[in-house]
Amino acid sequence: MKKIKSKIESRGLERRTSEDETTSELFSTFTCGENENQMSDSLQILASGLNNIAEKEDRVEEKSANNELVELKSEKNFQTSITAIQPLVTFQPPLQKQKWFKQLKWVLLILGGVLFFSSIASIFTESFGITLRNIINGDENTIRLIIHAQIPRTLLVIVTGVGMSICGLIMQSLTNNKYVSPMTTGTLDGARLGVLLAMMIVPGATLLVQGAFSFAITMGTTVLFIILINRLKVKNKMFVPLVGIIYGGVIASITTIIAIQQDGALQTIMQRLVGNFTLTLSGWDIWIPIMIISGLVVISYVFSNWFMIAGLGEGTAKNLGLNYRWTVNLGLFIVSAITAMILPTAGIFPFLGLIVPNIVSLYMGDNIRRALPVTALFGAIFLLVCDILARVIIWPSEMPAGVVVGVLGAAIFLLLLFLQSDTLKSLKGAIKRRREKKLGEGVTNG
Amino acid sequence: MDKLEKTFDDSQAPLEQNKTQSPIETIEVTSTKKKKTNKVLLKIGAFFKKPYSKLVICSAVLAGVMALYLFYGLLGLPREIILFDLVELRLMPFAAMVLVSVCVGYSTVTFQTVTNARILTPGVLGFENIYMFIQTFIVFALGSAYMFLISGTENFIISVVAMVVVAGLIFIPMLTRGGTKGVFTLLLVGMILSTFFASLTTLMQYRIDPDEFLVLQALMFPSFSSPNSRIVLVSAIIILVTLLFTPSARRMDVLSLGRETSISLGVNHKFMSIRLLVMVAALVSVSTALAGPMMFLGLLAANLSYQIMKTHKHKYTIPVAILISAVAVFTGQFLIEHVFTSPWIIENIFGGRSITVPIAVMINFVGGIYFIILLLKERKKAK
Questions:
Q1: Residue B224 predicted with pLDDT over 80
Q2: What is the pLDDT of residues B302-313, one digit of tens each?
Q3: SS3 string of A285-326?
Q4: Which chain A residues contact residue B124 at CB under 8 A?
Q5: Number of residue pairs across A and B with CB atoms under 8 Å?
Q6: Cα distance from A353 to chain B (closest Cα, Å)?
């Protein structure tokens, strides 16, 4: 019995948090609103969604006064279908209280603290030697260094970590496939092709122009990939990333064929393969991506439950009253925009989108609303630590953070896979059985 | 055991005969006037449907492409120049290409049989990253002086052995543990490991002296254009020795039926899988060290061979896969060496610019597109 409970806990279905209520609420009101007003503009929809959150508390009070179900039925016809969501969400909470380290607030608090300290460490990691004494004395050079190089860099690292890991999370929940990440859907290859085209068509293009180009191409390649996958109608989960790798290979070969004709273009593109923060300096081409990505992260948190329901499949999602196509398009838009913004400014970080959501879901469960903040924080911390390591290992020179991400991430993921593997489980089982046997013997002897 | 194999072979043979003869009978009844011409036509059609004739046609195509590659641009030149060109410039690349296509064709079909998945290729496991890692590690740990001390052949053998050992330690236990789940974890681990090795290689490259890095750079991009004759000889020997261990095609047919079926039919599934996988690891290592990664070539060759032969008998699919990969490699190399560099093409099609395309990139492009089209077509058939 305990085992089952702990399993349920780890799946994250056990708690009917207030957040869950919010979204089911958000759902019903949203679908109503769309039908009545025929809203076409996505911004309008967004605004209505945000309003609904604000109104939610009053509504909950109203409904608790009346009988909830009766009221729901008395409203629109299709709203009855929304009651189907209730059993899913109102899973009976277990009587036993959760362990403290699994409660969301404690996890967030701890991760936030770690993030704070690691970002301070990141600000003070520099080969020129920033000391506290210099800051207190008001040394101009030191302060300028901190404001123009160290703080933007740290912020960019945090935003990149958050953005990439959330991209992975959204894609995994949309396709309901744990193996999917921007690396295995041709998204990164598309972004690279976009940067190449920007460099060819607009000579001396700024990072923003490159970002715009790569956004256009990335959106195109990602949409094409989703169309391809839908046309295949595959049920096999391993099939999707495999097709994605092949698809990415085709795009990458197009990029290579174009780039090899230009002098030096191939080298520049190859350098984009490795994520790097060495050249980060304060400027608009850093601040605008940071702001855009932060905005997109907030949007993805607001709509996180939709992505989870869209992952249940088109039929189920529609049955639950979700505008399926709109949700998928929104998710794709967010993923492509974040990837396209990150690639020209910082480069590619393999794995970040694959490993971080997987590690978090091992401990937090599949409830994306719960997992998203943790994933974001964890991704930021992971990338920060990797960036600090990249600066420390061959001090006083630096090396790309993407390399450290690749090595560390792969090692961690393989370790996790091993810990989850059957051999270890059977080993544990054998030890447990032996212990029980010994205990049993002790009892009979006594 | 032999009896079982025979019955398995016989049970499929009559089926195929029926398929080829049935259209003749049905049309004979309906048509009266065009009986004779139809008969001849259908007989020709039936001839082309026979697996052996398909094999012959494929090898004829290959022979044509090979001849084109070997003798293009040599007609009318003095005999000495022809001999020099053939022996000194074209013979070694020719041999290397033949060896690589044997490796790729055989290893892909076998790997797909063991894993029971038509979209897998051993290239997914990231052998080229392991190869690069080993090269970098040697320079990193022992210095470039060591690279000068040992000959290219010794380095080649060391890297092939190391690749086989790494692959054997990591991939084979995973695959033989059981069923389809093993394949999934294998793929995931392969993907992660290839990035892991690539990152580790970059990490070490940052610590290597720039002068030593130049030595490494020469080893990074092996290609067909200038293979070392001793390396070609060594790899030919390794491939021949490896192919000596190949099990009979019938046993491989049984293996492709799945784990339970093959065990019940009396094939030692675990032993066979390990044996084949070790062979695959050796062959892929040799081809990677010889000519760099050819990830999609195997996919293209194996699936085209299933499509052309319309059977899963290894007796036919393996040779045809080898033939097709050879055709692809020779055509690609011919296009790159002679067609893309010819003045007419450069002026009229490329607009006065010379265009260079690495052969691996070209094959990846064509192979990837073919494969996606194949997947889309299969879905239509299923509907």
A1: no
A2: 988 988 888 888
A3: HHHHHHHHHHHHHHHHHHCHHHHHHHCCCHHHHHHCCCCHHH
A4: 242, 245
A5: 107
A6: 13
Q: What is the pLDDT of residues A205-227, one digit of tens each?
A: 677 788 888 888 888 888 888 78
Determine contact: A439 vs chain B, CB below 8 A. no
State how far the Cα of B358 lies from the Cα of B364, in Å rounded to an integer. 10
Cα–Cα distances (Å) from B361 to B92, B244, B321, B367, B372, in that order, read 22, 32, 20, 10, 17
- For residue A348, which residues of chain B lie inside 8 Å, CB to CB? none
A220-224, long-range: CB < 8 A, 24+ apart: A220/A190, A221/A186, A221/A187, A221/A189, A221/A190, A221/A193, A221/A251, A222/A185, A222/A186, A222/A187, A222/A190, A222/A332, A222/A335, A222/A336, A223/A332
Residue window 87-116, chain A: list those with CB within 8 Å of chain B.
none
Q: Which two tokens stand for residue B359?
A: 């052969």
- Return the pLDDT at A222: 83
Report, in this order, helix, strand and coil percent for chain B, each rounded to 5. 85, 0, 15
B178: pLDDT confidence band, cut at 50, 70 and 90?
low
For the cut 90, the answer to whether the pLDDT of residue A381 exceeds it is yes
**Are A339 and A187 a contacting pair, CB within 8 Å?**
yes
Q: Do B196 and A410 touch (CB under 8 A)?
A: yes
The dihedral of CA A83, A89, A95, A97: what is its sign?
negative
ipTM computed for the complex: 0.72
Contacts of A400 in chain B (CB under 8 A): 202
Would you say residue B192 has pLDDT above 70?
A: yes
Query: A240-263, pLDDT tens digit by residue?
Result: 777 888 888 888 888 888 877 776
Interface test with A, best of B170, B189, B208, B361 (most A CBs within 10 A): B361
Among the residue ranges A233-237, B195-199, B273-277, the one predicted with the least confidence is A233-237
Task: Tell me if the bond preceding A396 is cis, omega within 30° of 0.
Answer: yes
Which residues between 199 and 238 in chain A have a beta carbon less than 8 angstroms from any beta carbon of chain B?
228, 231-233, 237-238
Number of Cα atoms under 13 Å in the Cβ half of residue B167: 29
What token pair was written down for A111? 């991760």
pLDDT tens digits along B349-373: 666 666 677 777 888 888 888 888 8
